[in-house]
């Protein structure tokens, strides 16, 4: 598959690019072409230094990058996501969109601040054309560990979505990353549960002196 | 310590009684004395059959049981909890109360239905005298596994509470159960996060064909 990663210059975006690059064609996207090219180059070099096979990682602007892909990963901040997606609407046709977006703010601690739709995933689904299927996943995989190929991950990834076929595709993409176990989290309306886990996990890590934590359901 | 367990005839109440009975004096409580005595007797027999030391497990009515204890565990259904606690108010002085209570309903799936206070724990704190300190914990430890002493537990227990000393006591009680790791979840106002995990975990188990699941933050 061809996968565009918006916010591909951040840890989690790079991590997904690196972990999927042996099996899929990756387009690292950014508002600025330079940054996207640089991040894609860094990923290629890192894979080549490790002697790992790469199906192709390229850099692109958001507009060009998402046009002809099967999957668009939204690994970006919540702030500004709706205006961003509105400007990108002409570039969407029938892609699968995976939302990692978590609306949260920090006072003394992090706090989940869902929009009136109930979750970022539902707001994103409403913003995009109906032919685009939104799935919610990967909010709670520790970013720096995902981006470090020397670390074997061992986490559960809860996947929410309204289209069972599309959800199955994202669960399969998850299974392709060693030791990530996809779990069906139900419909997109349940996304608030996995989105709200993110600030909760960050607070838990800070309070208890843990490094970034993910979650396992055992 | 002397620990009264309301709802001590259910799996999770029995499980806590069994796991703490080597170190603490347990009072299994129920509305009906017969049921409480029977459950306490079953626990004693089970421990004695396994050759395990027991500091004492007795059965009692709720009213008598909670009077002279250090800790009261509320392992009861949300429905009816407020009227129950109001009738018990004269029996409370300055006990620590551990709430395992989760307000939820089942339509097709389980759904968290917090009261207007934001969580069961906050509502319980408001219902009880101010001298009673409420802590929220143990919602997400699989009940049947807790009650089966042949199973070594390996879960995280997030503990929320407003009094740091009291929260520390409950975290220590948690540590005394092999392989349960207590984590500080912040103030009682954060209890909605761990309460709402319960229906989420039940749904996740059903959807994915898992047996009852708990949680680990890794």
Summary, kept brief:
In chain A, 37% of the residues lie in helices and 22% in strands. Chain A has helices at 11-20, 33-49, 62-65, 81-88, 120-127, 143-146, 164-175, 191-207; strands spanning 2-6, 25-30, 57-61, 71-74, 96-99, 104-106, 110-112, 133-136, 155-161, 180-184, 215-217.
Task: Please explain how this structure is put together.
The structure is a homodimer of 218-residue chains. With 218 residues, the first copy, chain A, is of the alpha/beta class. Chain A is 37% helix and 22% strand. Chain A has an eight-stranded mixed beta sheet, sandwiched between helices. The longest helix of chain A has 17 residues, at 33-49. Chains A and B meet through helix 8 and strand 11 of A and helix 8 and strand 11 of B. Strand 11 of chain A pairs antiparallel with strand 11 (215-217) of chain B.
Count of alpha and pi helical runs of chain A: 8
Largest sheet composition of chain A:
8 strands, mixed
* Quaternary assembly: homodimer
Tell me, rounded to a whole number, the average pLDDT of chain A.
Answer: 96
The helicity of chain A comes to 25-40%
| Unreliable residue stretches of chain A | none
User: Largest protein interface?
Assistant: A-B, 25 and 25 residues
Structural class of chain A: alpha/beta
Draw up the topology in text.
Two copies of one chain form a homodimer.
Chain A: E1 2-6, H1 11-20, E2 25-30, H2 33-49, E3 57-61, H3 62-65, E4 71-74, H4 81-88, E5 96-99, E6 104-106, E7 110-112, H5 120-127, E8 133-136, H6 143-146, E9 155-161, H7 164-175, E10 180-184, H8 191-207, E11 215-217
């Amino acid at each position: 598959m061809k996968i565009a990663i918006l916010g591909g210059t951040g840890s989690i975006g790079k991590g997904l690019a690196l972990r999927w690059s042996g099996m899929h064609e990756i387009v690292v996207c950014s508002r600025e072409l330079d940054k996207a090219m640089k991040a894609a180059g860094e990923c290629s070099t890192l894979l080549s230094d490790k002697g790992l096979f790469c199906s192709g990682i390229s850099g692109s602007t958001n507009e060009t990058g998402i046009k002809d892909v099967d999957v668009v990963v939204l690994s970006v901040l919540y702030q500004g996501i709706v205006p961003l997606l509105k400007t990108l609407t002409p570039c969407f046709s029938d892609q699968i969109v995976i939302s990692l977006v978590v609306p949260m703010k920090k006072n003394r601690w992090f706090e989940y601040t869902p929009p009136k739709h109930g979750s970022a995933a539902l707001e994103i689904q409403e913003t995009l054309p109906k032919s685009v299927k939104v799935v919610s996943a990967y909010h709670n995989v520790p970013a720096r560990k995902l981006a470090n190929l020397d670390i074997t991950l061992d986490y559960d990834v809860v996947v929410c979505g309204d289209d069972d076929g599309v959800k199955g595709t994202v669960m399969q993409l998850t299974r392709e990353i060693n030791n990530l176990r996809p779990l069906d989290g139900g419909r997109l309306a349940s996304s608030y549960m996995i989105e709200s886990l993110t600030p909760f996990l960050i607070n838990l890590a800070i309070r208890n002196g843990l490094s970034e934590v993910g979650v396992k359901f055992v």
